[in-house]
Amino acid sequence: MTKEKIWFWDIVKTMEPRWVMSSMATWAVWMLTMIVGAKLNLLFLKYLAWILAFLAIIFFILFVIMFSLRIFKFPGEVKKDLSHPIAANFFAWIFISAAVIVTIIWNVLIPLGWCMNAILVSKIFYIIALVLGTIIPVLVPFILTISEKVDSKHAIGIWFLPPVGIFVLVFAWNFMALHGIW
Asked: Per the confidence metrics, is the pTM higher than 0.85?
């Protein structure tokens, strides 16, 4: 194997679910930039906001592809993350990010006339969020319950992430339902 291929697979192997948080952080910076740009009427902030919006979508798609590769090529690493009392909860970021993208599409991109296929894109992201949002909040606590690595000192705020993600999922659905989608 060439060095480039080894380097790529090393990144895929060590990729953790919390990397998807960068997609959500980019969305947060995007929203702040968009609001400040609109309030102060600064054109460069509005353009920066759109760059951040597309970066967030690209990050999410890239991470989903890389994480899917990790699941199939390195299932032992994924299983190790799922049995870790803190790392396992970061799997919720994947479906939460997808639901946040749906919310942004319906609240910003569609009203501004962006994304020619915005409804289709939002449906795809919602299906991803719904499938993973159904599996992860059940699977992670189950695996952690049967794991012997869990200790009371691991009970930190991140444990609430999977259940909170369900509310984000319902929140994203509300915007689709208001427009008669599905």
From this structure: no
In the numeric block, which tokens belong to residue 52?
């951040």
**Distances from the Cα of 27 to the Cαs of 20, 59, 94, in angstroms?**
11, 10, 14
Closest to 56 (Cα-Cα) out of 83, 33, 29? 29
Radius of gyration (Cα) for the chain, nearest Å?
A: 18
Asked if residue 136 lies in contact with residue 62, where contact means CB atoms within 8 angstroms, the answer is: no
Contact 85, 149 (CB under 8 A): yes
Per-residue pLDDT of the chain (182 residues; tens, 9 = 90+): 566 567 888 888 888 777 777 777 887 788 788 888 888 888 888 888 888 878 888 888 888 888 889 989 999 998 888 877 777 777 888 888 888 888 878 877 777 776 678 888 888 889 989 998 898 888 887 877 777 666 666 666 666 777 788 888 888 888 888 877 76
Contact of 67 with 139, CB cutoff 8 Å: no
Write down all domains in the chain, each with its CATH number in brackets.
Answer: 3-178 (1.50.10.150)
